[in-house]
Every structure is written in structure tokens, then in C-alpha cells.
Amino acid sequence: MCFVECERFKMKSVLIFAMVLVCLSQLTQGEPIVRNGVLVRVNDAVITYKDIQNRIAPDIEFLERQYSAQPKVLEQKLNELQKQHVDQLVEEQLILHEFKTGGFRLPDSWIEDKINKDIRTYGSRLTLTKTLQAQGLTFERYRAKIRDRVIIEAMMLQNVPRDPVISPFKMETYYGQNRDKFNIQDQVKLRMIVMTNRPSDIAFSAKKTTQEILAKIEEGAPFAEMAKIYSQGTQSAEGGDWGWVERSVLRSDLAEKAFVLKPGQRSGVIEASDGYYLMQVEETRPAHVKPLSEVREEIESTLKTAETKRLRQKWIERLKTKSFVLYF
Question: Would the pTM count as exceeding 0.90?
Fold first, then answer.
């Protein structure tokens, strides 16, 4: 068996891109697609240009909208999208071939469970069948696609652990090598009362109302209670509690006021273009690096994702070594 590297595919990326543009043009004009050359052969299966078109069609319109004024960027994004889906299709065919030649068996009940789930989603088997027909799929072809999907999922579960074990040493090493990712700026634990301007309400004065609220607080009314009653900010239900915030979280005019307050201090009435603010700082915390104990779960999740990806790629490469893959 042999494996032909994908360099030949890369050399033809421009040709593929042109093909996609031609087919996209035909799709938008409602014309039938007649060109359907073979792009890759994987053992006894083939991947065609049409297979790629079907995969990337949902994303093409989005990319065209996003990069309509940047044709070179659009071309690059389309090529990247094509390459990604070609790789995925090749991997899927490698996995299906491994299942076919490895003596594996798939209970029919697994396929029926997936189909019945889709039937419940669409309301009835008849509605599902009509939806498939509108997409140009027979029920038999749909069932075959479901079977392939179930096989791929089952083989992935068997060969690539979803929850790999990450040793404490690996986590400590990652933390030591990536401490800059866990830097925290100066922080304040902040409560805020927001009173927005109401230009259409002549009888209402945001400034006067804020001053009255401040007077009540100075007389002993709890800041959090006043925030719940009067604040028009998004955190009013929580008593104006913003929790721990860094300077970058706040607008510059509010940050200048908040970060000069000491624990227990509050601001006076702060006038801004959109209204008036009152702030109270409950605690302060200087810039620091989060300790390992605080970020251990985050690091473990990052490393598990990376390890799962590595093991998956290792498995796919192993399948390639005993398969015939030819890029045309």
C-alpha cells in the first residue's frame, strides 16, 4: 500500500478555487452542475469536487459577505476552507475503510436510534422524507450517511480518548512556560449605580436624582439597596455589583475615578455624556499572576484538548500508512 502526500493537492489549490467559483456561479444562477472530477482517491472510495462543493456551500455565502471588498483575502479563506474539508473527507474515508476491513460490526439499533431522533425532530417520518427529497436525497442515501456518521463516531470513541489523563508535572510545566497568560491587571471590587439621561422626559433630572440617592447613602442607606431600587444599569438586580474588574473593563472616564478609590470609599456624582454614576469600591487587588491553584482546571482543560487532538492525528497518520491515498 502507499500514501501520496498532499503536496500535489496544494499545487492545484488555485485550480480548485477556480472550479469552486465556476460552480458557485452556476449555483447562484440556478444552473445544474455538470463538472464533477475526482479530487482524491482513498483506497476504493473517491472524493469528488462535488463532494467538496456540498461541504463548503453553507459557508461560501458567509465568506463572500465578510470579505466582499477583499478579493485576495476571500480567495485565501476559500482555499483554507476547501483544504480543511478535503482533509476531513479523507479522514472520514480512512476511518470507514478501517471499520470495513477490520472486522468491526455495528448494531442496526444504533442507526435506528439516530433516525428515530431525526424523525422526532421533524415530527414524522413523512416530513423527514419530504425534507430529504427537497435536498436531493433518497431515504436510503440518508440512511447510508447516518450509518457512516455512527461508524465514524464509534471508531473515534474507541481509538481517541475523550478525557486523557494529564499529569500534574505537565500542568506545572505549562504554567511555568505560560505565566504571561495568567497576568491580571490592577483590580477593584466595584458596585455602581447608573442613572441615564432622559431627554424626552422634561420633568426628570438624572443629575438631581443621583444627588438624592447619594444623600440617602451618606445618611446610612446601603449602597447595594439603593442600586437595586434606583440603578438603571445592567447589574441593578445584583445591587450594582460588578465583581472584580480590571481597568480595561471600564470606560476610561469611569476607570479614572474607580482606580483612585480605596476600599470602602465611594465616588461623588460622576457626570458623563450618557448620564450620571455613583461608584463604591469594596476591595482592591494589585496586578499579579494567578496562582497555579486558581488556574489548574483551565490548564488541564487546555492540555486535554491538545492531547486529544494529538492522539487523533496520530491515529489518522497510522491509518494513512496502511492505506492508498492519491490526490489528483
Answer: no
